[in-house]
Amino acid sequence: TYGDKVALVFRDFPLPMHKEAPKAGEAAQCANDQGKFWAYHDKLFANQRALLDENLKSYATELGLDMAAFSSCLDSGKYTAEVEADKKAGAAVGVAGTPAFFINGRNLSGAQPQASFEKVINEELKKAKALVAKGTPRNKVYAELTKNGATKAAAARRKPPVDDKK
User: Fold this and answer.
1) Exposure on the CB side of residue 116, measured as CA atoms within 13 A
2) Euclidean distance between CA atoms 147 and 9, whole angstroms
3) What are the pLDDT digits (tens) for 47-105?
4) Which residue from 24, 58, 60, 160 puts its CA 20 to 30 A from 135's CA?
5) Which residues are paired to 103 by β-bridges?
6) How many CA atoms lie within 13 A of 28 on its CB side?
7) What is the pTM of this model?
8) What's the rounded Cα separation, in Å, for the pair 103 and 6?
């Protein structure tokens, strides 16, 4: 609907009651290294009660990932610190459960209908257009819109997941 007017940044927030969730987050990032983040994400979501290491590797096999690279990535802990940093950043801005969404710093918590997202996105796009009309350079709009927002502590962006759904 919005094309290049919005950016999606996915962050991990493993919940404490799901002891396998941190490793599952790491596995999704390892799948992202091979351009399969969203396919792997969907597999994890469909199998939330089966997240042991052997399951994580089985899902990678099912998706046709290079298993040597995936296993090396997962076993090395390459993304352990990143998943933990995401969790800390989420906690710093008040995330207590999932899903949690931030649209220019505005929290939209829990599973929401598409209309809820559209309402907030349209309001934020209207603000962005007003800033540009007043002379704010386009590359400074996001910073201007979020400068006083709760997501300031979580502002550092990492590489977004590869869009393998195209």
Assistant:
1) 12
2) 18
3) 999 999 999 999 999 999 999 999 999 999 999 999 999 999 899 888 988 899 988 88
4) 160
5) 106
6) 28
7) 0.81
8) 9
